Amino acid sequence: MAKLLYGATMSVDGFIAGPGGDMSWLTDFVGPKPSTADLVSQVGSLLVGNRTFRGDDPNKGTDKEGPFGGAWHGPQFVLTHQPPAEPVPGVTFVTDLDSAVASAKEAAGDKYVCILGADVARQCLDAGVLDEILVVLSPVLLGDGVRLFDRRPGSARVTLEPIDPTNLWLRVRRP
User: Fold this and answer.
1) Angle subtended by helix axes 97-108 and 118-127, to nearest 10
2) Which pLDDT value is given to residue 171?
3) Phi, psi (deg, nearest 5) at residue 57
4) How far apart are CA 87 and CA 78, in angstroms?
5) Model confidence over 17-47: pLDDT tens digits?
6) Which helix (H) or strand (E) holds 140?
7) Cβ contacts of residue 68 below 8 Å, gap of 6+?
8) Fewer Cβ atoms within 10 A, N terminus or C terminus of the chain?
9) Environment class of 150 (CB within 10 Å of its CB; exposed 0-12, middle 13-18, buried 19+)
10) DSSP run (H or E) holding 7
11) What residues form DSSP beta bridges with 115?
């Protein structure tokens, strides 16, 4: 049975995208990471938020364009209230969370459904269907942008269990 995994690269100050959804900062940190090197092979489908789907790809126009630096090829389900008039090859547009999760899980088989997009991840967490969170930290402070999780005041506390605990020890770089 597929598990829902929210995977994101995050700045040390908690942002997964810069102001206005800017993803260009990621180009300085793209490359294989030992802890996630085989993740793509474990993903059976993607559940993507509309803003992420239509957003900024730091690799646009290169051979690394697309999810996972161009390494992902498979079914994508985009959660949106406004599906496009024209179909997009390999992409299914879904208008409600329950249908999107069910379709993505069915397509993933016994692999992960990887969630791309902070709002969809928050919705999955709030609905009680999110199974795991993988955060790849990048050594940068963005100062502003889209947070990993932007939960509403009064949201229930969520306790997380480390799967692959790591320490982060960074040096502050001087100009």
Assistant:
1) 100
2) 64
3) -105, 115
4) 12
5) 999 888 888 877 766 665 666 888 999 999 9
6) none
7) 39, 40, 43
8) C
9) exposed
10) strand 3-11
11) 6, 47
- How do residues 63-80 score in pLDDT, each as one tens digit? 877 777 777 889 999 999
Largest CA distance in the chain: 49
Q: Which domain holds residue 119?
A: 3-31+53-147
Q: Are 122 and 151 in contact (CB under 8 A)?
A: yes
Residue 111 lies in a domain: yes
Condensed to tens digits (0 to 9), the pLDDT of residues 74-100 reads: 999 999 999 999 999 989 999 999 999
Asked, for residue 175, whether it belongs to a domain, the answer is: no
CATH of the domain at 60: 3.40.430.10
CB neighbours (10 Å) of residue 121?
25
pLDDT top residue among 173 and 56? 56
What domain count does the chain have? 1
- Asked if 62 and 71 touch (Cβ cutoff 8 Å), the reply is no
Contacts for 90 with CB less than 8 Å, ≥ 6 apart: 73, 74, 75, 76
| 124 within a domain of the structure (yes/no) | yes
